[in-house]
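pinning this so it doesn't scroll away 📌
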Amino acid sequence: MGPCFGTVSWQIAMATTTCARAPRVTKARGTDRRKFLAVSFLTLARPTVAVAEEATLYGPRGSPGGGLEAATFAGGCFWCMEKPFDRVDGVKNTVSGYCGGGEPRPTYKQVSAGVTGHAESLRVEYDPKEVSYEELLDVFWKQINPTQENQQFCDRGKQYRSAIFYHDEKQKEAALNSRDKYEQLGVFQGPIRTEIVPVTDFWDAEEYHQDYYKKNPLLYRFYRSRCGRDQYLDAVWGSGNH
């Protein structure tokens, strides 16, 4: 994302006419989500946060501590993954970030360009006494189209792949069993291509990505709808699951 904006803030860029001609929704090296939203939403609303790129100045996340455990999922756009997990009883914290790549301290500009190997991901910190990992897996499967490879809906590229990053062998076994269960159910009408791989360093995304659905609810709903996520989930699971 970003070629339509340069170094100016998204709020300022939305007021310009440099993006007046609608681009293609996708491109070879990944979807330019901010450009897509700027063009599509130009006459409807302006987001309220600036989007200057910033490097991650701290190290990767460690254990949550305090009796909590961590789960890490990739389901395409991380904006769309926070809300479903935030409303689960027993989930204490969710963080949008980058996982599955080798580049330290990746920025959003790098990840969205597909040059670091990371996937847009969500870290879920939860109390295992209140909610099980298996229950979180059920939430995960109901937010994605697992039959798509290196893509989720309108977002294309390996950085938008779906994945379960397991933290230990117990999570690995649960993830494999969960995948097999959903394949046997046949609800997705195709082979599941979601990766189940060991977790790597998880790097927090920039602050403007955190709780995006709260900061920009109108734009968030518009993006989900225009990207095709909600239509697919409604068709498979019925409304109200997202």
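📌 and the second one:
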Amino acid sequence: MNKSILSVTIIGLMLLFATNTGFAQQVTEEFKVMGNCNGCKKRIEKTALTVDGVSSVNWDKETKMIQVSMAEQVSIVDVATAIEAIGHDTEFNKADVTVYNDLPGCCQYDRGDDASEVAASNAVASFSFSVSGKCGMCKKRIEKAAKSVAGVTSAVWGKESKIITIGVSDASTTEAMVSDAIIAVGHDTKFSKAKLETYENLPGCCHYDRVQ
């Protein structure tokens, strides 16, 4: 009799444990999350794991896809919303621009909407050329240097394409003038190379591969 009661008790405890813990039905979903580096990976995965019911996550830096294992009652949109709140765009929505701007420079990925800036800048002319760089911090530095040149109304550098597009309000503002300003802050252009000392003084995450 005692053995029967003990067996029933054990089975009951096991069922209770299964209902309230890790035996809940798990599903795996994936969606796109924008980011650049290992810092992004840690931030994205840590945030996803804060969502109740999420058991494991893996974000791939190359494909930009995140795989999320979670209890079946969890909404993937809730996971995406948590990630957007820390500055990373997802395939569902974009992060707030102020939160994005507060990310470390190396984590500031291309958002895909910068190209409209040149068209909206009232430029009378525009030109493009290649500029070497690596990350979001490079982007800020390159664009700031370009905009310091008199007559430049807009400057948009693509991290993937390595092309900067310049809008100017004065046709006398030349590619060479803008290139010189960019070279002076440590970034090679199609026209010339930055000084080695200036390049080496860039932050480590900004050390792009230099063509010999």
